Amino acid sequence: MPVIVLCSTKGGVGKSTTALLLAQVYAEAGSQVTLIDADPNQPLATWASRFTKSVPERLEIIGGVTEETVVEVIDDAAERKPFVIVDLEGSANVTASYAISRADLVLIPMRGKQLDVDQAARVVSLIERESKVFRRQIPYRVMFSMIGMLQSREQKHIRATLDGKGIPVLDTALFERAAFSAIFQIGGTIFDLTAEDVSNPKAAQENATAVAQSVIAALNEETTR
């Protein structure tokens, strides 16, 4: 079963938000999902404990994961659930290395700023090192997350640079929407939100679903290579 790992060495790029949205979309579609919170700040485990009654039945959230337990937790979840999603701390540490070694796909979120590109490059280097250690090519995708609807000149330049270096980029970007932060404030999933909660929740639902579908497409692309 696919293990999707979210990794970034920079904070504020939407890593935990992306992990939670993917888990919610797959659960909404009928899949059983395990979401592993390996971030010491425990943003996802906190969300689950704070809003226990509104966590989807198909979504299991495991917190308190450390470098000593992360491999065992991932392997166990992968045997039980169709989807395993791992949210890592914002640093290239031992836990990140162990989790990446188990990944079927690593997602590297970035906001489309040059500083984010520099940090994303560090994660790519880490993935390449782990690929050599484990003697298998670990697939990854850089993804634009929490960006504006209109593509800036800087984002266009960055995308061209990534393409020129042969760095694969996820086809769909995650836009910055009030709905994505609202689920951390009021609980539930993006599919529970109404127009009374946030502006245009349907657009947020469609965007998150499109990103989740792009992730599936990337997984399928890698398995056919």
TrEMBL record:
Pfam families in alphabetical order: VirC1
Family annotation (Gene3D superfamilies): P-loop containing nucleotide triphosphate hydrolases (3.40.50.300)
Protein origin, superkingdom: Bacteria
PANTHER family: COBQ_COBB_MIND_PARA NUCLEOTIDE BINDING DOMAIN-CONTAINING PROTEIN, P-LOOP CONTAINING NUCLEOSIDE TRIPHOSPHATE HYDROLASE
Protein name: Partition protein ParA
Organism phylogeny: Bacteria, Pseudomonadati, Pseudomonadota, Alphaproteobacteria, Hyphomicrobiales
